[in-house]
Amino acid sequence: MKLKNLWWLLAFWLPMAFANTEPVAARVNGEVISELRLERFFVEYLEDRGRAVASIRSPKAYRQLRQAALDVLIDKELLWQEAQKRGLKVDDQAVQRQVEQIRVAIGGSERFVRRLQDAGFDEVSFTEYTRRELAAQQMFAALIRANTLQARHLLVRVAPDADAATDAAARLRLMQMRAAVVDGASFASDAVRSPFGWHLIYLPNHLEAVDVPDLQGSGTVRVQRARQQQAQARRQVLAQLRAQNRIERIDDD
């Protein structure tokens, strides 16, 4: 967990005991996200994007940004609940290391305790919330790994200055190789040209294939695909969680 996020907890997190008495922004499988929690998080959400509430003149833009902030809180709750369902446990030492980092960052035990009290925490409840945040992050990482493509590829080498006929013949050979591979294998729909030749990406799982443009070298191809796969996996993981759980967005009404 980033130290900045831990610092934010003390300034903006509303403990559950108080959340139960506040107006509701959303419910995730019955668990409440309060309006006050959303308001406090919204300030931080905008600051992370270099904006402030007072700078937003358009009511439409304000609503869209607020809804996006609520999406983040909903996703956090979904990940925490998924971690609980799967029995994910966070090491006690890892939790204590995070708590100690913020204690030092605030300036020692006395100031740390005062900040906790101001935010409605004691050290026990803050430690448990830190455990919750770590569990959600670890759950997200595990789900992304499970949904990320482990791409492999076939390569028919062609000189960068090959004539059109040679280039076309190499591409045809690659597509013939594709047809000869074991039934059931999943490949990108088309071959990719790089200075090294024609590549065909093999996809061991079923995420939608992403086109890769002409790139300078196979290393760049791999880096580009890895980034695309990670972004696609993050979107897919969150979309699946939202579809599989009961979410009520009262704040949007």
From TrEMBL:
Pfam families: SurA_N_3. Residues 1-19 form the signal peptide. It catalyses: [protein]-peptidylproline (omega=180) = [protein]-peptidylproline (omega=0). GO terms for molecular function: peptidyl-prolyl cis-trans isomerase activity. It is an enzyme of class 5 (isomerase). Its EC number is 5.2.1.8. Keywords: Isomerase, Rotamase, Signal. PANTHER family: PEPTIDYL-PROLYL CIS-TRANS ISOMERASE HP_0175-RELATED, PEPTIDYLPROLYL ISOMERASE. This is peptidylprolyl isomerase. It comes from Pseudomonas fluorescens.
